[in-house]
Amino acid sequence: MIAALPAIALAALLPAAAIVHIKNFTYVPATIRVHAGDRVTFVNDDDEAHTATALDKSFDSDGLGTGDTYQHVFPKPGTYRYFCEMHPYMHGTIVVLPRSSQ
Ligand SMILES: [Cu+2]
Question: Of 5, 20, 83, 94, which one has the greatest count of Cβ atoms within 10 A?
Fold first, then answer.
């Protein structure tokens, strides 16, 4: 029964979150490390539209307008490189560590 859980136990059940901002045609930070099961949010802070598109197509935000967000949960460890389909010189990396490592 979820209402009986202390807040700290409940927080452990929710996916951790990381945020990548897209600003001045750059992913900030360009490389992040998360753990398997974590949720990453991309936020477009630019006036220009951008995407966050995995090189292996495992995720794709499609076009993000100003202020738009896109979320993706990374279930499996690995190194996920991504780019912007509209500006292919924009690159970022998500390093997904096993769930158990800290
Ligand atoms: Cu772009």
Answer: 94
Query: How many angstroms is it from 8 CA to the middle of ligand 1?
Result: 38
Residue 46 Cα to ligand 1 midpoint, Å, equals: 9
Domains of the chain by start residue, with CATH: 14-97 (2.60.40.420)
Tally the C-alpha atoms within 13 A of residue 23's C-alpha that lie toward its C-beta: 8
pLDDT of amino acid 99: 87
Q: What is the pLDDT of residues 13-30, one digit of tens each?
A: 666 689 999 999 999 999
Burial of 64 from C-beta contacts in 10 A (0-12 / 13-18 / 19+) = buried
| pLDDT the model gives residue 71 | 96
Quote the ligand 1 centre to 30 CA distance (angstroms). Answer: 13
What's the 22 CA to ligand 1 centre distance in angstroms?
8
pTM: 0.84
